[in-house]
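User: Please predict the structure of the protein below. I'd like the answer in structure-token form so I can feed it into my own downstream comparison script.

Assistant: Understood. Taking the following sequence of 132 residues as input:
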Amino acid sequence: MNDYKDQEGQAETKVAFEDYAKVGGEEVDLGHDITGYQDAGVGNLWTSWNEGRWSLATHTSIEQPEKGVDLGRKAVDYLETHRLPIPKQHGSIRLDATSENHYAIWAKGSVVYELSEVQSAMDLLEIVVHFQ
């Protein structure tokens, strides 16, 4: 039994869930009563938020800040009508507004699901919501 709990803990660590309301940053309205938090550093700008047991973030460069917010709003709109799978503990999604570097990771028990190398951010979300 302890081995299973250890595996669950390792799976949760790999997911790297963050509660962005606690992390903070500049607040951004993403619609549907969702508040995003922006944080910048070394030429990068992240817009991050939580939905249920999921942490989500968009990435862009500081030269194109509107792209990250626009992608975040588009993702929030999509998730209003489509449900993410319920992870055992948490899940994490990163969407890149300026490249194809998107990924999702979530755990159910000791099993970790990872999805990457998807051409567009919205395609990634569409695939993830089918894992019920």
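That's the full token string. The helical segments are 2-15, 20-23, 65-81, 121-128.
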